[in-house]
């Protein structure tokens, strides 16, 4: 890899390595690549062979990686502290029970709603302004939501690098991105509308499974596999920003949670969304730095964040399945009719 790196000309511009038979180069520079391979093997052995030496090697590589990025680290740590402070403030203020005049969500919704949400399998608390109900709903939602957003954030910054490392040109990468955007605008929109009829929890469970499949397909350099990865990613992206919030609103209605407390949960979810972005950025950078260099036609080091995201997304799906009750929207209509009504509402506004 080091021998194939572009040279720098006197003007400071990269020059492509001169083409020629590799055995001629070896003949004129005897022992050069052998010593280089020995150097690389010695460097990576410190991370893999000896358990006692591994931590030092990892820390040394991370220190070198962040040596010139003190400002970036300070900004990341500052953003993390701000998110934690906002979370603490929201938790303390929301612990106060709602006032008796707070209107339940079920009485404040639009008159166009045809049916109330349906519950399957789990009892629904009926106390209004109950702090315990609020906290349980908040914790159930935010734990799964934080994992879902982490799995989305950690891979976003490495999509282009992943495709470029697979050997695709800028034009081909643009086509792959277009596949994802088109999928989100078409299939993703329709899939999200299915949650009204098929269940919002079911969509949230499908989100983690589909997105995990998208991440695993990103390891393959094949064009069809990467296109399928973007197709699944576009559908999952639409579910993340529709079905999760739809489930939360339907659950709050079923619990007769006051509007003020639901607002606190949405505010807390915004903090969680930002905090997961900070954590995902740090984790993604670390796993890429600790990954071995990419090999031509083989390992792609920028696939490491996608491999980390896959189990996290599956864990989010598991928590949605076991901790959430199924909630529906209007089950007396079809997804197409729901989309049409939503479009009319957007145009009217």
List strands and helices in order, with pairings.
Layout: E1 7-8, E2 14-15, H1 22-28, H2 32-48, H3 54-65, H4 70-94, H5 105-108, H6 131-156, H7 159-165, H8 170-185, H9 187-198, H10 200-217, H11 223-240, H12 243-254, H13 259-290, H14 304-323, H15 335-348
Helix pairs in contact: 2-3, 4-13, 6-10, 6-13, 6-14, 8-11, 9-10, 9-11, 9-15, 10-11, 10-12, 10-14
Q: Overview of this structure, please?
A:
With 349 residues, this protein is mostly helical. A hairpin with a 5-residue loop joins strand 1 (7-8) and strand 2. Helix 10 runs antiparallel to helix 12. It has helices spanning 22-28, 32-48, 54-65, 70-94, 105-108, 131-156, 159-165, 170-185, 187-198, 200-217, 223-240, 243-254, 259-290, 304-323, 335-348; strands at 7-8, 14-15. It contains 15 helices and two strands.
């Amino acid at each position: 890899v080091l021998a194939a790196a572009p040279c720098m000309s006197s003007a400071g511009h990269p020059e492509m390595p001169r083409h020629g038979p590799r055995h001629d180069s070896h003949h004129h520079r005897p022992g050069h690549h052998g010593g280089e391979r020995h150097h690389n093997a010695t460097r990576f052995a410190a991370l893999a062979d000896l358990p006692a030496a591994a931590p030092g090697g990892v820390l040394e590589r991370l220190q070198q990686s962040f040596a010139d990025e003190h400002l970036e680290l300070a900004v990341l740590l500052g953003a993390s502290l701000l998110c934690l402070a906002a979370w603490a403030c929201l938790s303390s203020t929301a612990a106060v029970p709602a006032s008796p005049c707070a209107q339940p969500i079920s009485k404040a919704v639009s008159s166009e709603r045809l049916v109330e949400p349906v519950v399957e399998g789990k009892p629904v608390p009926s106390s209004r302004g109950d702090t315990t109900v609020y906290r349980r709903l908040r914790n159930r939602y935010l734990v799964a939501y934080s994992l879902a957003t982490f799995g989305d954030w950690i891979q976003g910054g490495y999509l282009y690098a992943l495709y470029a490392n697979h050997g695709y040109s800028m034009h081909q990468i643009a086509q792959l991105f277009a596949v994802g955007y088109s999928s989100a605008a078409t299939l993703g929109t329709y899939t999200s509308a299915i949650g009204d009829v098929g269940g919002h929890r079911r969509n949230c469970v499908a989100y983690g499974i589909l997105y995990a499949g998208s991440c695993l397909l990103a390891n393959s350099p094949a064009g069809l596999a990467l296109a399928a990865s973007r197709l699944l990613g576009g559908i999952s992206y639409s579910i993340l920003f529709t079905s999760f919030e739809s489930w939360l609103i339907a659950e709050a209605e079923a619990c007769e949670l006051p509007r003020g407390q639901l607002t606190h949960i949405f505010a807390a979810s915004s903090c969680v969304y930002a905090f997961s972005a900070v954590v995902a950025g740090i984790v993604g950078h670390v796993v890429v730095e600790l990954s071995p260099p990419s090999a031509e036609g083989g390992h792609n080091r920028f696939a490491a964040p996608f491999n980390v995201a896959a189990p996290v997304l599956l864990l989010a799906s598991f928590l949605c399945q076991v901790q959430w009750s199924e909630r529906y929207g209007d089950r007396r209509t079809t997804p197409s009719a729901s989309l049409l009504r939503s479009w009319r509402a957007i145009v009217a506004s």
